[in-house]
Amino acid sequence: MSTTPTGTISRRRFGLLAGAGFATLALPTYLRAQDKAKVVIIGGGAGGATAAKYLAKDSKGALDVTLIEDNDTFTTCFFSNLYLGGYRDFASITHGYDALVSAYGIRKVTGMAMSVDRAAKTVTMADGAVVPYDRLVLSPGIDMVYDSVPGYSEEAAQTAPHAWKAGPQTELLKAKLDALTDGQNIVMVAPPNPYRCPPGPYERVSMMAHVLKSKGYSQSKIFVIDPKPQFSKQALFQEGWEKHYPGMVEWYGPDVHGGIQSIDVAAGTVETDLDTFEGALLNIIPAQKAGAIATAAGVAGETGFCPIDAASMRSTMDEAIFVIGDASIAGDMPKSGFSANSQAKVAAMNIRADLTDSKAFPAKYSNTCWSLIETDDGVKVGALYEPKDGKITSVEGFVSQTGEDAALRKATYEESIGWYDGIVADMFS
Amino acid sequence: MIRHCMPPSRAAAGTRMAVLIGAIAVAVPMAWPLPANASDNAALALEVEHAVTRILALDGDPAYGEYLGGECVTCHQASGAASGIPPIHGLPVDYTVQAMVEYKLGTRTNPVMKLMTARLSDEEIAALAVYIADMEE
């Protein structure tokens, strides 16, 4: 259901003629809704779904909340590596929007938002429909910068999947992984900072190694060509690879491989200064930027991501727009589903304070990332964040330690399953 | 005294009076000569009990608790369903205050909960406890 410009104007005129008091008392609900302040959220992932739910739930009907999302369901990037590893099925990481609509009265507009007219405060959809807003939340996630890896493209991703947006790409990667025979290699090109889910590539390597090991493969190798000199939870992953998959995983930092020259997805090669790596499966994860609508709205900076006020998640370029999740420049916070969920709650609180008489409390953010290295061998890293020194700043944190005993690692994995059920319930039910 | 060094079971959640009595019971053996670690434990237990008493005397702000509680329900399901992470909804105020103080001061050791409670002020713990006690689905 979309509002056309004509429809909006005619309803507005009718409201003016009728008078606000009369309209509130006597008009049917769908017309009364025109009097409420409008919040539009673009993107139904960890950030957007959470923002929509908390805006609708906590305003107790005082706001008109619209969620624009192109898909009917959302497949979480978090735990998609566990699908690759065979620990979860695809349906278990895919969620619908029914409860947001039925339990919270959120209007779901299914379609692609193409542009934002910031002066008129409207969003224009691909089908031409215009959706007006008083406050706009952008939670578009990431887009790939395909040409950051020479030889890679959107088309090449059909052969060498990035699988860094969960969905068909993830299923393609799983199919290719499962089709490997012993002795065939995997080459992963890891992304440069900043990117979605800092430990994600390395958990993925672990899960791919788990699949190869489970089949009894002894000849296959996984080469990781990394543009970064170090990575998230590095000591934990490298200890785990040594322990569970000895000789299978070879990680190359830039001081060793010397730079990625080009890739050839048809030939299955990644050429670096050091050597040319060959794989029957290439998993190319390129550089990333904020989803296209952020750029279309003109709220993305030179880095491709969106600067925000650390105390509120409000865009520094437009006070009626909030940017949350992976698309935002969130200081010390990693780009993660947990972060997006945390930022969504801060944004929702500030939007309610803008548009209703509710109070804005000081912003507090948190994040924890769990990773699975092998069956029952889970690790985690977490931190608290606050607005400080003009950015979102880490104020306290922890990380799992190398050499932890099996019972603790199993408890950490079980905790991650509880967290998954918790966060998807927090987003979608 | 050892009782106070262990996390209380849910059933053993004390009343405010029991907490006060506990603080006194811990205070008495402090005068005895004890091994260093036992003395440290006793001092920590006393610190826990003092904080709990202080927080239980506050009136938690439910609206603030609802905002802060957004951080809890990322993991602890608001419906009370649980898998791998225990449910919290409807827990009595004194139980929640005791547990959060124990995480904050380190007598409970889960790193995530230790982190989440690290920056909470007395007022924030009081607000959260009121919110959690009122949680229902």
Automatic annotation (TrEMBL), chain A:
Name of one Pfam family that matches: Pyr_redox_2
Keyword Flavoprotein: yes
Chain ranges of the Sulfide dehydrogenase [flavocytochrome c] flavoprotein chain central domain: 170-286
InterPro entries according to UniProt: FAD/NAD-bd_sf (IPR036188), FAD/NAD-binding_dom (IPR023753), FAD/NAD-linked_Rdtase_dimer_sf (IPR016156), FCSD_central (IPR049386), FlavoCytC_S_DH_flav-bd (IPR015323), FlavoCytC_S_DH_flav-bd_sf (IPR037092), SQRD (IPR052541)
Domain Flavocytochrome c sulphide dehydrogenase flavin-binding: 363-428
Residue ranges constituting the FAD/NAD(P)-binding domain according to the UniProt record: 38-157
Example of a GO MF term: flavin adenine dinucleotide binding
Keywords linked to the UniProt accession: FAD, Flavoprotein
Database matches in PANTHER family: FAD-DEPENDENT PYRIDINE NUCLEOTIDE-DISULPHIDE OXIDOREDUCTASE (PTHR43755:SF1), PTHR43755
Name of the featured protein: NAD(P)/FAD-dependent oxidoreductase
